[in-house]
Prior knowledge:
This protein has helices spanning 84-87, 101-104, 115-126, 150-166, 191-208, 240-247, 271-274, 276-289, 318-334, 350-359, and strands at 56-58, 71-77, 94-99, 130-135, 173-176, 213-219, 221-225, 234-238, 257-260, 295-301, 338-341, 364-366, 370-374, 379-385, 391-397, 408-414, 422-426, 436-440, 443-446, 449-457, 462-466. By secondary structure, the protein is an alpha/beta fold. It is elongated and about 70 Å long.
Amino acid sequence: MRGETSRSFLVLLTIVVVAGCSGAPTPTPSPAATPSPAATPVPPTTLQLGDNQPLADLVLAPTSDMPDNRIGVSAGPIWDPLGVVSFYPYGFRWAHVGSDWSRVEQTPGHYTIDASEDAVMSGYAASGVTTIAWLGNGNVTGDHVLLADPAWIERYGEYVRFMVRHYKGRIGYFELWNEPNGAPPNPTITVADYVAMVRHVVPIIRAEDPGAKIVIPGSSGSFEFGYPGYGPYGRNVFDRDWFFGILDSDAMPLVDAISWHPFFGNRADDPYYQTYPDLVREIKAEAEAHGFHGEYLATDMCWRTPGENVPNEPQMPERVARAYLVRAVVLHRGLDLTTIIAPSDGNQHATALTNVNVLLAGARPLDLPVHVSTKATHLRQYSFALPDGSRLVALWTDWLPVEHDPGVAATVTIDGLGGRAAEAFDVMSGSTFMPGSTQQLITSTSDGALVIKDLLVKDYPIFLRIGG
């Protein structure tokens, strides 16, 4: 796993006593009957029913030597980026940026990069950000489909040559085009023409920068209107036929990474959303069957909030959008993908995303035997191994998020981890700019398994750290 280190990276937790005293003892196993839910409303910060240990603010600060978490932000075009200062302090370690062919080649055969754009890329590199730069999608002649002409594939190849040579050592991943399957209003580049371009361009990149990674195809979906639940907005539909046409081609052994844009405001009650993990497994199986052995990148996913005024895409309350973004990060990391989100108004989600970014630093997906007994439905869970030897489990109900979810009680049993201490992390319990919370949990051991009773599972990931 890239960037792993044996050092512990979870930093200061500022204790705020909610119940009990600041010097409360470490929780001990309790053989007593499972506590019953209180008759009064459960406080929104509650993590485990019946647990009166001190509740602490969750203050996780990224550090310069934090292990790579494979989580990033879509920073937009190079000439108009979010900038390092906008996201690096929040723990994002990847950036997805774009270069417009027509800006670089304004006169045929002559290439120019603005000094300010050059400085942006140097800033990313100096800060240790891993950059994925898409090359293309520029309106050189007013028609995107000219890659059907071999002469234009050669011209595109020279543009790529210039960019790779110029940014060698600063950009780690070069993505060939962006949304070549034709996100409206752009027409589609056919699978055959795109694959022909890949065959031509890959040797150019290998010659100019052998250490660079080559990414394809950066495909997107299209919007379907009138689908139940979406109101006046469009439902994003993944372009499966085009994408699998690429996976089934002889381009697969030539490249280092496969990328796609999975979500644009998709609702949790959408069948596509619910079955998406199965789609990821299909993508991996199909690509590997055709000779691919590289990385997978899920990029540019977003859920919009009121006021963003993005055509076609659904708008939803800030807390709901935040829950979707946090879910998406954990889901894709649990499926062993690098994940890039695109919150156009990201500051409103900063604290929750920072907490997730730090918790998942150096995390390696792990098939942990976790058993959950609960009345909650649509349960989703993923487990990770952390660099300090501890285990991290993320649990949530993967249905429609609401403004406030008190949670549903669950008994979590983890085989083989009996006797270890467990701590819960709620990355979203505070307000927009306030911390989440953390609490030691009451646990017991049964047949060598760790048992956590009455954990409240909510509609966004609650993290359990065991040991370490």
